[in-house]
Write a structure and sequence with these properties.
By secondary structure, this protein is mainly α. It has two domains: 91 residues, no CATH class; 45 residues, no CATH class. It is built from six helices and two strands. The chain has a two-stranded antiparallel ribbon with strand order 1-2. The longest helix is centred in the last third of the chain and has 33 residues.
Length: 153
Amino acid sequence: MQNKTQQDIIEFEIESILDDIRELYNASGKRTSSEFEEGLEVTYGVNKATIEGYTYLAGRKKGKMPPVKAIEEWIKKKGIRPIEQNMKINSLAWAIAKSIAKKGTDEARHLKVYEKVITPERINNIIEKVSQFNVNLFINEITASLTVLQKNV
């Protein structure tokens, strides 16, 4: 791409980050629906971008009960069956939600997808690309100005 702008660089890098987030998530085995991917959103501003998405992959601290209905849907999508034959799926979902409220979730099992993809090294790489663009733009502007000055002498 010959005539890249700073915004082009930012958009390309953000799309690359989103692709890597989706790839890591899908390879994790935690996928039960397309809800995670659909929840990833980018808002572009002038020379910036904001990524928003679900934080539930980072787990949940104890104290507040998660929505039972969401856990019930997760159980169904994963094909999990209660061990006890008389237990219904909604009862299992309630028991899981109650346990999460009491203990939180095991941090060792959390998928730190954002931290694995959006690393300090990657951020620095993007900054270098954008900075290099700015240096090249400055050099081109100075060269053009000098050319105009030379013609006027």
